[in-house]
């Protein structure tokens, strides 16, 4: 999500390699866009490794449900933090941001469907 530039009201967070960023079952109202570094998405093992421009935490943000997986920093990670209001602001201001999100989400579903 290369267009995830910082907007007014956005915050940023940094984590060191090995830090647990999110825990499965935790409540969450934010999603994160990776600006630098890599994270592992874990649920009974590593499900995915994400890097710059990719995002995570969107399920809890969109559905208001607890986190579905752990997220662990593989390297030092710099994240852009989006709240529900921040995401809505972005979507209204730049509809291509929504298309890019949908494209990536569709790719994730296609990958999961391809697994035996």
Molecular structure report:
This protein is α+β, with helices and mostly antiparallel strands. The protein is 31% helix and 32% strand. The chain is built from 3 helices and 8 strands, in the order ββββββαββαα. The protein has helices spanning 58-63, 84-93, 95-114, and strands spanning 11-15, 20-22, 30-36, 39-42, 46-50, 55-56, 70-73, 77-83. A 4-stranded antiparallel beta sheet has the order 1-8-3-6. Strand 4 (39-42) and strand 5 (46-50) form a beta hairpin. The longest helix has 20 residues, at 95-114.
List keywords for this structure.
116 residues; alpha+beta; four-stranded antiparallel sheet; 3 helices; 8 strands; 31% helix; globular
Write the layout of secondary structure elements.
Elements lengths: L10 E5 L4 E3 L7 E7 L2 E4 L3 E5 L4 E2 L1 H6 L6 E4 L3 E7 H10 L1 H20 L2
Antiparallel strand pairs: 1-8, 2-7, 3-6, 3-8, 4-5, 4-7
């Amino acid at each position: 999500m290369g267009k995830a530039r910082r907007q007014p009201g956005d915050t940023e967070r940094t984590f060191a390699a090995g830090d647990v960023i999110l825990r499965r079952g935790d409540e969450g109202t934010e999603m994160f866009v990776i600006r630098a570094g890599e994270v592992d998405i874990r649920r009974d093992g590593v499900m995915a490794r994400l890097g710059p421009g990719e995002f995570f935490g969107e399920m809890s943000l969109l559905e208001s449900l607890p986190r579905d997986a752990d997220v662990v920093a593989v390297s030092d990670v710099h994240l852009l933090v989006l709240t529900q209001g921040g995401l809505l602001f972005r979507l209204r201001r730049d509809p291509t941001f929504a298309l890019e999100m949908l494209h990536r989400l569709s790719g994730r579903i296609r990958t999961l469907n391809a697994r035996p």
